[in-house]
DNA sequence: GGTATGTATAAGTTGGAACTTATATACAAT
DNA sequence: ATTGTATATAAGTTCCAACTTATACATACC
């Protein structure tokens, strides 16, 4: 049998949606361009499903049910949250799912850490200057690849 | 006509890594758990394709061609680089593809920014202590979206 | 040369995901 | 109650991507 689905997914008490196991991981959810676009649209702030439908219909000619299904996947992946207001469903970005991605990325040396390194260096200088000359510690050179 | 494929479906690519357009995006590439695992394995450092094949075969019972195909996708997505050494192909993580993901994530408020804020605070304290009362330059407050 | 090893490509199959249309559900308003 | 609006679900179709086996392409070794 091919197609071994290795995705485990921690249930961890997802009671609201009523799904016993997480259908899809954050990466799988973000693997689709339409869903990525939805999250992008939500980056501007909380939005009703209808607005998202309109946007996607205009951009890609996608039907309302399709958008709704995508939103469900995003919801299951903890990438968005829903809030009912009357007959409307207000969606918003959920940090939880994005954290999963960020955490995964943290395993690798990130070039964006450079400004952080710069800050660390600055911090070190400040500390050094503050205490007026001390033993030259390596600080935390960490892994500087290349 | 469903299924609007946003990706350019260029055939061409006989040989030569220099593809004009990326067949698949970084997110699409990372959407697959097997490919994510491959990148994870490469996080430990440069590895020959054979080692990756062995690992994936042991973990998920995946064949050598399957791994090779996955590596190609990762290569196209600039997530890994290859280096020929004799008959071996040494793969390594490529920052380029990961940058794309990180850059996309940067659009959203990241809770991991807190340690950076802490550093900034520390830095400010250090600077304050260092100058003992000087003209207050704004430095680079950057964009702090509240 | 021949043979073995390491890796990539060719060709073909299949399961599932991303759609579709049709319908259900929920609330609002007349 | 009826009609309208907003969203979700059901059921079904289609197409692609992740696999398979078989083979080509290198390089190394004898």
TrEMBL record, chains A, B:
Any Pfam family matching the protein: HTH_20
Residue span of region Disordered: 1-29, 124-146
Keyword terms: DNA-binding, Transcription, Transcription regulation
Residue intervals of the HTH arsR-type domain: 15-113
Superkingdom of origin organism: Bacteria
GO molecular function, one term: DNA binding
Basic and acidic residues composition bias: residue spans: 135-146
NCBIfam families membership: HTH_metalloreg
Record-given protein name: DNA-binding transcriptional regulator, ArsR family
